[in-house]
Automatic annotation (TrEMBL):
Protein name per UniProt: Isocitrate dehydrogenase [NADP]
InterPro entries listed in its UniProt record: IsoCit/isopropylmalate_DH_CS, Isocitrate_DH_NAD, IsoPropMal-DH-like_dom
Family: Belongs to the isocitrate and isopropylmalate dehydrogenases family.
Source organism phylogeny: Bacteria, Bacillati, Bacillota, Clostridia, Peptostreptococcales
Segments forming domain Isopropylmalate dehydrogenase-like: 3-326
Record-listed E.C. numbers: 1.1.1.42
PANTHER family, sorted: DECARBOXYLATING DEHYDROGENASES-ISOCITRATE, ISOPROPYLMALATE, TARTRATE (PTHR11835), ISOCITRATE DEHYDROGENASE [NAD] SUBUNIT ALPHA, MITOCHONDRIAL (PTHR11835:SF34)
CC cofactor: Mg(2+); Mn(2+)
A GO molecular-function descriptor: isocitrate dehydrogenase (NADP+) activity
The entry's keywords: Magnesium, Metal-binding, NAD, Oxidoreductase, Transit peptide
Organism: Terrisporobacter mayombei
Signal peptide (UniProt feature, chain positions): none
Top-tier EC class: oxidoreductase
Source species, domain of life: Bacteria
Gene: icd
Amino acid sequence: MYKVTLIPGDGIGPEVTKAMVKVVEASGVKIEWEEVEAGEALIEKYNTAIPNHVIESIKKNKIAIKGPITTPIGKGFKSVNVTLRQSLDLYVNLRPIKSFKGIKSRYEDVDLVIVRENTEDLYAGIEHKIGDYGAESIKLITKPACERICEFAFQYAKNNNREKVTGVHKANIMKLSDGLFVNTFKEVSEKYDVSADDLIVDAAAMNLVLNPEKYDVMVMPNLYGDILSDLCSGLVGGLGIIPGANIGKDYAIFEAVHGSAPQIANQNIANPTAIIQSAIMMLKYLGEVEYAKKIERALERVFLKGEKLTVDLGGNASTEEFTEEIIKYL
């Protein structure tokens, strides 16, 4: 029996996490869920969006799965996601991007993985105002962070029979910061019998739209990873189906990477695919590969049949109907 910290989130978070729990339990794997709350609703009581008991639960269980949590734009509290990543040193953001037959998109047979450095770059949050005139953000890139994210990418490629790793950067302009990243990428690549190349980030964006099938594992600093992982999700149907994981040396948090969509909360129309896919990643991480594949095959059958899809996928099924359809194929 595994014990997993469950953070439902807000907006549609509680609905999609409830669906995920039903599917995971129906697969037969034994998990005990320790549910804790995080987000804006807790600020009045705890003076923080992430009370200490949330962090302590994750540290105790070493693994968590969370629904989306609203982050204010330009004001308010710091992103819960960023805070968790930095406080638990979850230095890898892993996002597999894979096509499903039956989901409408302009591309077929996309199968690539974004490996995003998760703790520094502009997301280090080192900012200050320049009087009333402007503001400055500092881009922090360090050698140890570059080494460990590149090591993870190449080891992931090796472990999963991937053929190539591409380092993404902007070293033609930011010669010191991104130069450090790409030079470290090249040093690490020499340790592995895996094909490697590097690509400037703007060219990467264009080429991913033109020929996504040319790419396999792509590793990059924080900001580029945030942007390109969302771009890649658009290649296969959107953020509503893409899983995500934040992984460190000691802890891992799996999450739906889409927004909290408060405008459709409590209407029973939200698509839980992203967090169900994240649960599949979690089960593989735990070594429960057969249960993970069981859920994955059920999802594939639901998409291929196309009769019980949620509105965003072109159907008219409710969250509950979609969930029950997956369970039927388990």
